[in-house]
Each structure stands twice: as structure tokens, then as C-alpha cells.
Amino acid sequence: xxxxxxxxxxxxxxLDVQQLRRSRRIADSACATRVRVDGRELxxxxxxxYLGLASDPRVVEALREGALxxxxxxxxxxxxxxxxxxxxxxxxxxxxxxxxxxxxxRGLAVSTGYMANLAVLAALAQPEPNHTVIFSDALxxxxxxxxxxxxxxxVVVYPHADAQALAELMAKHATQHPQVTNRVVVTDSVxxxxxxxxxxxxxxxxxxxxxxxxxxxxAHGLGVLGAHGAGALEHFGLRSPHVxxxxxxxxxxxxSGACIVAHDxxxxxxxxxxxxxxxxxxxxxxxxxxxxxxxxxxSSAEGQQRRAHLAAxxxxxxxxxxxxxxxxxxxxxxxxxxxxxxNAQVLQLARALYEQGLWIxxxxxxxxxxxxxxxRITFSAAxxxxxxxxxxxxxxxxxxxxxxxxxxAEEASP
Length: 414
Fold this sequence. Notes:
This protein is an alpha/beta fold. Helix content is 43%, strand content 17%. The protein has helices spanning 2-17, 57-70, 78-82, 85-98, 113-124, 142-151, 163-176, 200-210, 232-236, 264-273, 275-278, 285-299, 301-317, 343-355, 385-401, and strands at residues 34-37, 40-44, 105-110, 132-137, 154-158, 182-188, 212-217, 243-248, 258-263, 327-328, 335-341, 358-359, 362-363, 373-378.
């Protein structure tokens, strides 16, 4: 036993050397832009609560109402006795949202986005994983990577957001492996650490050419993209029975859970064969009940106003003065990454901001490529323009404290 523990401790020590050990802070308040963490009052640019709905009184009241009506838990899996009326209504609502983009759309509520991605990729590879190939974006979320591994299918990784490279890989694979008849292209819609969008129209065209499924993880697009917040399919105006869409409900929707929407036949197959759906307890009905309220806000005129405010926050951040060694990744989403470079540098920057009263996480490998450690700055519709100004001043002060030279602001033309 001592040898086993010694091996683990040695591995932990190596993480410390590389400055890769993760740690947790304890929040003593609700998810919001102003939070109490480890006894300190902080301004947070840290969560995925993009529309500021996690603490909205209407959503909180709906959660309370759902708990009083349906209890604290579901008691079983969906296929035993845990599938409640709110779950069914949630599936119907999100299927209705995606119906303009997916033929014969049907929804399937799943406990988490991670489990939903495992369910989709493993089930689509059945019943013949040896005759299935999954083409996966190089920067896909860990849940998509793990789902592809679980599927036991062949996996081909294509360069990030490069539709031309994918086209060449699919053509080459079709020639070299004519026995493979089941093809799946899988991608995030909005990449969580870069904030950029996948070229979904180009990817869908390839899927239709090769008779492939297009699995879209819209975790960071749902609620944020599209005129009504329906996500990436609405944003791009796509329509195809090839699409299998997954949206998580703990980010812009402000609560918890996930939903898959696809052609009715696909969803029925998932109900029968998706192990991470079949063999887990359904989420609490109260959560689904609360989501009906939050999603109605997302699709309303108020939701449009919140998305417009997010855009204004992004514009207010564009003129931040940064050292030449740091750079912002191009993003028109609520995710605004600031790449610093090395692990020690980004940890030092995050600590400096924390001392100034700002909570922003330092992201390091393997979550992002080595040498691109960054601050993952996220905006919420609950932020104000004054909050963004405070963030800009704090970043500029931290840079100067670290001895990094800032560029001179350009004088306005007369």
C-alpha cells in the first residue's frame, strides 16, 4: 500500500513541478457576477452563466415550485420510473426550438452534457464499431474525446476548424477504407477555451456528401447564438437530418442538465442503446421544471436584450491595453481568452487579479496546448460596462506590476 501511495504522491509532486496541479476555491454565495469566495467578496469573470440566469429570482422560484411539486429527486433512471412530466416538457420544448433545423426533431433529456456526448458517440458507432470512423476536431471538449474512445470506432483527428483539411481526410479515408460505411463528424459549436465558432456550414456540406452524421456540441452556443437563442443551428440557418445536436443546460440556461435533439429515429436508437442514458438516475424533476422558466426567458425579447448587452460588453473590452507578449484570441462570443504563455506567468497573473478582487481562472495544459496558458475571461449579461472597465484597469495594473510594457494609447484625431 505504501508503494502505491508513493507512486501517486510522486506523480502529484511532478504536477507541482510543472505547475499543473489543480485546486478548488469554495464559493459561499450563489452563482453571480459578485460572489463571496473563500471569505472574500469578488467580481467574477469565471462562470458560464452567460445570460445571468443562474440566480434570476424567477428561475429560483420555479426550482422551489418544482421541488415542492415533484420532490428532491427522481428516484430512478428515465426508463424505470424517473421520467417526469417536466422532463417530457423540456424535451418537447427543445425539439420545437430545433425543429426548423432538424427533420422530425425529437428531444432526449440527459443528466449532464458529458453523459450526453458519451451516449451519442458510443450509440452511433453501434452496431458495427469496426465499420465506423469518427472525425474529431483537434480542440474538441474532453467529453467528445472520451465518447469517441468509448465508441471503439476508429478516430481521425482533423486540424482545428479546418474544413478543407477535413475534406481531404474524408476523401483519403473513403478511398483507403471502403469497408467503413458509418461516418461521424463531431465538433463543438463554440470552443470553450478559444471562444471561436466551428465552420458548421462547411462541415455539414461534407457530411451530406459522404453520408455522415454531424454531431454538434452546442454547450456554449445554446442561449447565446441565434436571434432567439436556439444556438448554432439557428445562427447559421442550417437544416439537415444528418445533424445530431446536443445542448447543455447549466451554462446560458442557468440550471443543470443537457438535451439531445435529432431525427426521431436517432433518438429512439439512443433510448434503446445509449448506456450513459439508460443506466443512470434521471436528474431531479425540479431542475427540468426550472429550465422551462429559464428557457422561456432565453427565447423572449428579454433574452434578445441580454444577448445584445453581451455584445456591448465585448465591444467595451476591445480596447484593453495589453503587453506585446500577451494576446487575445479572436472571439465574438461571451468567452474572451487572454493567452499569456507559460504556466508560471498565468498563475502569477491570476493571483494578482485575485488580490485586486477579480476571480478569473488560469487555464493550463492539458486543457489547452502547452505554451498557451491563458485566462479564460467570460462575460455574463449580469455584468455592467463598469465591471468591464474594472477588469481592463486590473489587467493593465497587473501587467505593469509584472514589469510588462504596455503599448501607448493612440491619441484621438482632431
